[in-house]
Specification:
By secondary structure, the chain is an alpha+beta fold. Helices cover about 40% and strands about 20% of the residues.
Length: about 270
């Protein structure tokens, strides 16, 4: 049995940063792997029971009990082991930057000890202990919010926020040059802002939003005839371009992806924006 329950942020200051607190439980009998697609969700999570394992070239290896949920650029197969319980803080794309002065492209790099760039090991240990002993999920939400409110500082950059809004409003059907001209901001500055606040450059982020736009369309319709319309809406200029980019983010052609989705191998955890 699997359960995924989400709660919205409660505190007014956190509502601009946190989308949901997600509580993910799986029984030990749930041993099959699931495909996690690239997404534009930031945040971090705690595995309080069991283990989460990721597929590295055909071998599943355990992930740290505490870790970031950063912007993914390629799909990953995950499975769980034992009676599993994970608590995740699902943030807006630049949510982690509200808690660190260190650029996100460094915090989320493979060489960085990412979580401890944001919070100390002792702070996490104390929070995890409280989460373990808390009697219900709603009180766990209050504990996490109290923890976050001690650390939050709101980064102010009007140009970055405006660029992010343009990308989302267009569903990815925009390019860096367009954004630069519309906002009167240099492309170099846009690159710096996106690396600082999200951890990837704006081209990567635009391509990710295009992909997510199509996946969201697929979640609403399984009709293969709708695929090209979803693609054109997201700014893909021809079928070959669409298939190439889609495969880059999913390791599947769009048609094969629909088949995989129908077999329920695609996780519901992060696959809806």
């Amino acid at each position: 049995m699997e359960s995924i329950v989400k709660y919205p942020a409660q505190h007014p200051l956190l509502k601009q940063v946190v989308q949901f607190y997600v509580f993910w439980r799986r029984d030990k009998e749930e041993t099959g792997s699931q495909l996690f697609l690239p997404h534009n969700v930031g945040g971090f999570g705690f595995t309080l029971k069991g283990k989460m394992l990721a597929d590295y070239n055909g071998t599943f290896k355990a992930l740290p009990a505490i870790g970031t949920r950063n912007i993914l650029e390629s799909p990953v197969n995950l499975k769980t082991e034992g009676d599993f319980f994970n608590v995740s803080v699902r943030m807006v794309p630049h949510g982690l930057s509200f808690f660190s002065k260190v650029p996100m492209n460094y915090v989320l790099s493979e060489d960085a000890v990412s979580m401890y760039e944001l919070f100390t090991e002792q702070e996490f240990a104390e929070l995890v202990e409280k989460l373990h002993t808390c009697p219900d999920d709603k009180r766990r939400v209050l504990l996490i919010e109290s923890f976050l409110l001690k650390k939050i500082s709101v980064p102010a950059n009007h140009d970055f926020n405006a660029a992010l809004k343009l990308i989302h409003a267009s569903k990815g059907a925009v390019n860096v040059s367009n954004i630069s001209k519309r906002l009167n901001v240099s492309e170099k500055s846009l690159n710096r802002y996106f690396n600082r606040y999200i951890g990837v450059n704006p081209i990567t982020y635009i391509n990710l939003i295009r992909f997510r736009t199509v996946v969201d369309g697929m979640n609403r319709s399984d009709n293969t005839q709708d695929l090209l319309q979803f693609a054109f809406d997201a700014g893909y200029y021809d079928q070959a371009h669409f298939i190439k980019r889609f495969k880059q983010f999913s390791n599947h052609t769009p048609g094969d992806f629909l088949f995989e989705k129908d077999k329920n191998r695609v996780s519901d955890f992060y696959n809806t924006l």
